[in-house]
């Protein structure tokens, strides 16, 4: 694939991710209304969120392998159709069972789309350009998710269920765009790193060059999920922040993180490498997550939370870049494992954080700091394979 075609393809892939995550964010403002409209309790809504993450966790490794076997494009197309169906079902659903089916389908769609897009980007980019492309990918995801709730709030003027139907339409537009313009990338045979192919499938997790990457990914996902899921409750209980204050903090932090991914990720990778960037981000994140328990003013909370988002938002693309360089002909499978460990952290983080929050609202952040410190220690044993780079 020539450079010009690769750039066009990258724009389409990033647009699809952007549209998909706008679609996910669209529904956030109306969830409380749906909860009251259907007389659901907080536990049911929590289980509904978990259903999405669990489905993504279960299907991601398989979907990643299927992306290697059947192709990137077909997996993206199937994922977009499933996502559109899930949003349509949620818009039409008037029973808890339908809503749960919708969330499970949503998780499956994420499992299909993310590994395939990650592998697609790895296929069409050179090793030197790949970190920048992956930074753009993470920025597209974050920006879509940030903008989505605002658009969803505006769409509620047309009805409470309107954001769900809008998300379904957006996903089908992304499907049409992908079907017409995406071309399956060429996948030339690539040399493996340190003979890791001796271990197949899930056993590759135990290979050191994979093990430390996945553990670091789980640590960062766990800590970020614990941090984000309880952030609004934390600042409400500790600082009596208003919903507007919270929205400014979350949106500001997300936007700062997205800008950092575009502007800082590639230069930092070239300067310190993927492993070095992960290690430094873990250290910064640990310090600032702990700092959230001791800061006591609006601007100190704002600055601390924004820098925390930068640290967390640089870790995943750094690990993704590292994995894409050692995955050889299993880009899809590595992308699936990437999604699986991210989902695992997203599930366990909020659960443990919620339990600790009921004891003391500082405890989730203390525990997240401890987990990050463990991650830092583990990362010290993570070494770059000798054959990874020329």
UniProtKB/TrEMBL annotation:
InterPro entries for the chain: MFS, MFS_dom, MFS_trans_sf, Sugar_transporter_CS, Tet-R_TetA/multi-R_MdtG-like
Main localization of the protein described in the UniProt heading: membrane
Ranges of residues in domain Major facilitator superfamily (MFS) profile: 9-387
The keyword Amino-acid biosynthesis belongs to this UniProt entry's keyword annotation: no
Topology term for the membrane: Multi-pass membrane protein
Signal sequence coordinates: none
CDD domains, per the entry: MFS_MdtG_SLC18_like
TM region positions: 12-32, 44-62, 74-92, 98-122, 134-156, 162-182, 205-226, 246-265, 277-295, 301-319, 340-357, 363-382
Subcellular location: Cell membrane
Keywords: Membrane, Transmembrane, Transmembrane helix, Transport
Molecular-function annotations in GO: xenobiotic transmembrane transporter activity
GO cellular component: plasma membrane
Domain of life: Bacteria
Family: Belongs to the major facilitator superfamily. TCR/Tet family.
UniProt name for this protein: MFS transporter
Species whose genome carries this gene: Lysinibacillus telephonicus
């Amino acid at each position: 694939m020539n450079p010009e075609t690769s750039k066009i393809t990258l724009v389409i892939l990033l647009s699809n991710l952007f549209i998909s995550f706008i679609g996910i964010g669209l529904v956030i403002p109306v969830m409380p209304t749906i909860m009251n409209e259907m007389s659901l309790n907080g536990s049911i809504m929590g289980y509904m969120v978990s259903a999405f993450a669990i489905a993504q966790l279960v299907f991601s490794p398989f979907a990643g392998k299927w992306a290697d076997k059947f192709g990137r494009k077909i997996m993206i197309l199937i994922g977009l159709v499933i996502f559109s169906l899930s949003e349509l079902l949620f818009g039409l659903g008037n029973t808890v069972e339908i809503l749960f089916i919708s969330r499970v389908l949503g998780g499956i769609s994420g499992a299909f789309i993310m590994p395939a897009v990650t592998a697609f980007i790895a296929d069409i980019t050179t090793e030197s350009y790949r970190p920048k492309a992956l930074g753009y990918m993470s920025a597209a995801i974050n920006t879509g998710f940030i903008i989505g709730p605002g658009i969803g709030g505006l769409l509620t003027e047309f009805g409470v269920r309107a954001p769900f139907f809008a998300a379904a339409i957006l996903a089908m537009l992304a499907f049409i765009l992908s079907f017409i313009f995406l071309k399956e990338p060429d996948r030339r045979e690539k040399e493996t790193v340190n003979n890791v192919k001796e271990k197949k499938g899930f056993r590759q997790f135990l290979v050191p060059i994979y093990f430390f990457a996945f553990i670091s990914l789980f640590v960062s996902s766990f800590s970020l999920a614990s941090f984000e899921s309880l952030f609004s409750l934390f600042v409400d209980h500790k600082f009596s922040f208003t919903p507007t204050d919270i929205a400014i903090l979350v949106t500001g932090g997300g936007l700062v993180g997205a800008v950092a991914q575009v502007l800082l990720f590639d230069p930092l990778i070239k300067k310190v490498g993927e492993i070095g960037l992960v290690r430094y981000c873990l250290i910064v994140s640990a310090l600032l997550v702990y700092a959230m328990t001791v800061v006591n003013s609006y601007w100190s909370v704002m600055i601390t939370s924004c820098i925390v988002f930068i640290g967390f938002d640089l870790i995943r693309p750094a690990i993704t870049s590292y994995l894409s360089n050692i995955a050889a002909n299993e880009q899809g499978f590595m992308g699936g494992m990437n999604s699986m460990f991210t989902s695992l952290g997203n599930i366990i983080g909020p659960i443990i954080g919620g339990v600790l929050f009921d004891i003391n609202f500082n405890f989730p952040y203390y525990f997240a700091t401890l987990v990050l410190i463990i991650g830092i220690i583990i990362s010290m044993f993570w070494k770059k394979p000798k054959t990874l780079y020329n």
